[in-house]
Amino acid sequence: QVQLVESGGGLVQAGDSLRLSCAASGVTFSRYAMGWFRQAPGKEREFVASISRSGAAANYADAVKGRFTISRANAKNTVYLQMNSLKPEDTAVYYCAAGSTFSTDISYTTSARYSDWGRGTQVTVSS
Hints:
This protein is an all-beta fold. Helices cover about 0% and strands about 50% of the residues. The protein is built from no helices and eleven strands. Strands 2, 4, 5, 6, 9, 10 and 11 form a seven-stranded mixed β-sheet that branches. Strands 1-3-8-7 form a four-stranded antiparallel β-sheet, with no helix packed on it. It starts with a strand and ends with a strand. The model has no long low-confidence stretch (mean pLDDT about 95).
């Protein structure tokens, strides 16, 4: 089982940037595809971004495409989410997720593909 700990959230103004980190432990990190999801108050959890085991493939939700970048450092057991040009509608709790897979170059956009989740980090964007 993967232990995931998110960090880097906070309160920022619209247009600012944040970088979220998710540190994994307990497993061989490079065997896992990784994803970021978010949940705003009163809304369903939604997909934000994902990255394959190798880091060669990534997917983004339309709402964040061009503003957010997902990356990973397998040597550090860490996945990142660089968030630029933040908007008030980006306000949510952001969750990191891990899914074991044999595929090295496929990233997954559905939550059902992920078996392990972090506790989340709050991102609040003021207007």
